[in-house]
Amino acid sequence: MSSSDLHNDNGHNDNGHNDNGHNGKAGVRRRGLLALTLLAPAVLATAACGFQPMYGTLGSNSIGTAELQQVDIGVIRDRYGQKLRNLLIDRFYADGRPAAPRYRLETTLTASEQKLSLQKDATATRAQLVVNAPYQLIDAATGAILFQANARSYISYNVLEQQYGALATVENAYDRALLEISNEITTRVAAQLGRKL
């Protein structure tokens, strides 16, 4: 080892040159390599255990592009029922609706509005929308119920005095509730179909 390789405690080598910049860059490189070394086994272990998204774009073997597309989504009554059905169609069908579905999804929708934060004159400043969507996954060939559950959403909103603003606020609350319910139904039906594979 030459004398130029020896460093004293204040970051200078014996030639009087400061190596702090060089050592800082090397330290960053060493920390990056250490992090990569620690993360690599976790990533490989996750891949090795067969982990994959429940639905997505992994090809024809993924639940989202195969099994969910085998579900016929039944008509849901009323305007908000139609909105929910359209959201479900967007989530279930990546490549168009099934020609010969193996399953059928039957859903109903009920909603109620509850007043919160009552003032002295009994008018409410806040309200809560409660939306229930009981649903069944049915075998299309036999009519047997394979799975049934209830998706529920609670959405709070401000009660406005202006008529247009009040209507828009309630409509927004319904849209948020239907979005939550469609996501829950999609996830739970996909999980059920995944257990059947």
Structure description:
This protein is elongated. The protein is built from 3 helices and 5 strands. Helix 2 links the parallel strand 1 and strand 2. Helix 2 crosses helix 3. Strands 1, 2, 3, 4 and 5 form a 5-stranded mixed β-sheet that branches. Helices cover 40% and strands 24% of the residues. With 197 residues, it is α+β, with helices and mostly antiparallel strands.
SSE class: alpha+beta
CA radius of gyration: 29 Å
Distance between the termini: 65 Å
- What's the total helix number? 3
Number of strands: 5
What fraction of the residues are assigned to beta strands by DSSP? 15-25%
Overall mean confidence score, pLDDT: 75
Please tell me what the overall shape is: elongated
> What are the secondary-structure elements, in order, as H or E?
HEHEEEEH
Low-confidence segments: 1-18, 40-61
Helix content class: 25-40%
Short key terms for the protein model shown above:
197 residues; alpha+beta; five-stranded mixed sheet; 3 helices; 5 strands; 40% helix; elongated
In short:
The chain has 197 residues and is of the alpha+beta class. 40% of the residues lie in helices and 24% in strands.
Could you give the topology of this structure?
Blueprint: H1 20-48, E1 71-73, H2 78-92, E2 103-107, E3 110-118, E4 124-139, E5 145-158, H3 163-196
Parallel strand pairs: 1-2
Antiparallel strand pairs: 2-4, 3-4, 4-5
Helix pairs in contact: 2-3
